[in-house]
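Reply to dn_fold:

You asked what the input looked like. This is it:
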Amino acid sequence: MNRVRRIGHGPVGIAAAAASLLGTALFRGTLTGTAGAWMLLEGAALAALTALTVRHASPGRAAAATVLGTAALAAQPLRMLDGAGASATEYVFFIAFGAVLGLAAAGAGLLVRLVARGRAGALEDVRRRERLALAAGLHDLVAHDVTGIVLDAQATRAEGGGGDAALERIERAGLEALAAMDRTVGMLRGEGTGSPGARTYGVADLPELADRFAETARLPVRCDLDPGAAQRVPRETGEAVYRLVAEALTNVRRHAPDAAGVAVTVAAGPANVEVRVADTGGARPGRSLPRAGGRGGTGLIGLAARVEALGGEFRAGPDGAGWAVEAALPVPSAAVAE
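and this is what came back:
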């Protein structure tokens, strides 16, 4: 329907303006009361068509409609003035009035067009940001579980034995990855965060995340959380903290599978929450696992952008013999986790 309107308004508005100009050029005779009323009706219709054409038609047709519509409305009073003994002042006044009416109609159409374009651009920008956020969430959560599946299989093959327990861990990690993908696909379909199975992760879920990492990666993990941190950190910030820890642990499994251990620390102060995930580097005796494939790095870039968007600071780099990911996120004084 919108496409039909965009195609139709251009030719109709231009044709109406051209017909009005032709009528003015061919008009001869006296303008009676009935003819005067029809002229006023014609002027109103012409102004409306000019506005609609500028609003919906292509830029070229909108410009043509502006020129022809303004010219037609400026010339229309000539039907009334010719032969009526009008003075030069009256000619100037009525012609100027018609031209102003035409320009005002075109300006109104242009204003509505610009407002609609700005609204459409803003809506597309919001959709793009949402798609990027969903893609980041899919990467952070699914990559964490899938990397665990790969490395758990590699560890089982390298160490031998424990097949049933390894299969159980692989099954659990696979189910978590599928659930995360289902939630993301549901949101992409417009089902929203309130759809069945949807879940927002936060600071309170970090111990479970650390336990799953320790089990699948077979690395000792120390998770230190400030008491009450889950209640003091707001939901959006808590989700960013969870994603940061998940991505940092995923990078440990990818790039430092032989690390001796990992430490996760979350300290929630009155004004900010500080997060640190660091592996100790080195290697445990008798443990030598292959590194996971892939270049990586995109997750940390996305996390840095997310932290900065929330007004925080982000750092990732070497830390002694290992690697550390650190972030400081502001916490509103009255924030309470939902």
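The longest helix spans residues 88-159.
Hope that clears it up.
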